[in-house]
Amino acid sequence: MSPLLIQAQTRGRTAVCNAIENSRVRTQANRNRNLQLLALLLVVGILSGVSLADDGVDPWVYAHVGLDHFYNLEYEQSLANFQRALELAPENPIFLNFLANAYLFQELYRTGQLDAQLYSESNPFLRSEKPRPDPKAMQTVKNLVARTKEICQQQLRQNGQDKTALYALGIAYGIEANYEFTVYKHWYAAIKAANKAKDHHSQLKKLDPDYHDANLVLGVYEYAVGSIPAAVKWLAFLVGYRGSKVRGIELLHMAVRQGKLVTTDAAVLLAVIYNREEKYEYVRQLLHTLSIYYPRNHLLRLEIARTYLNEGNEAAALTEYGQIAAQVEANAPGYDRVPRDRLYYQMGSLHQRQGDYEKALAAFDHITNGTTANGLLAAYARLRKAEIYLAQNRLDNAREEYKRVLTLAYPEPRAQAERALKVLESRKQ
Description:
By secondary structure, this protein is mainly α. It contains 21 helices and no strands.
């Protein structure tokens, strides 16, 4: 790794965490005021029977509430608040982008793309079961993006230096690039949309160098293009794509420190980038700060656990998973969305590798003794329990688990159980 990249990664790390925290305090104060105002308005509206749309409510009240729900993975509540904001300001392109992004991330979450790497022990056999994106939801996203582009382009025809229109237009193309890449795997369409997003925000920065929210798109673009392998970088150069990982990281740091709307997004993206760069301790600092701000977002805690696994520190990962499981069992807000069976399979597999068989069996029991677990996962949990019983020389217990697997309608686990039973029977002879 180049000294410049190392310098860029280390410079300002504490400053970024402080910036997130300072922004959190400022924004939380604003949101608390907005939440209090919203509660008061709802009470007044209910008591008076008057439509709130007639009361001159600032639509940003609903937008801020929607953003809080969005970052806490509460997509239905998020959508409801963004839609309410749009009822009060139907031509606001920023609100349209909020709504489109919420629909998109709701689909990404539903189809398992936001937690694809968080339950690595069960991924090999559950990956094929992921649901497909809902065509209606995705069409809604496309329609909202198209509407945003239409509004922004009309505003820019009237005033080519409309900074809000340039910003919203760039974000709309960024959303398009995201769904083309993550949902449809249309690489060229994604690059084309990302390039347009970069062009609009580059133009915005020329108009106003202090428009720091634009640094999010520009930073992601710089880092992504700068990460193209050297073997194909010449092709990117020929078609006009330029990028620098160092510059991309610097721009995202600036977005965290000085942005108004993108602080959280930039912090999350920095966590993704530093995870890729194997700077795991700093990733944990970022994610811990974000988890304080968004306590109902369980994915942040799971990502922290994954950083320990990436380091090969399974014991520390298990400690983190144990804390998450405690939140699940305590019915902590937001943790009802954690797939308990996958969490306990992850824990059981790690305990098994650590040689802590009793804790492993206890974790697998959460799956096999439950009534709501994924059936395929329960079959594999029984196979793992049988392996542990074999290691403990508890052969009758192992046979019982294998026989139970044979009663289940899953070909691969059944085949493994049949082979294991044959081996056990041969030992008896």
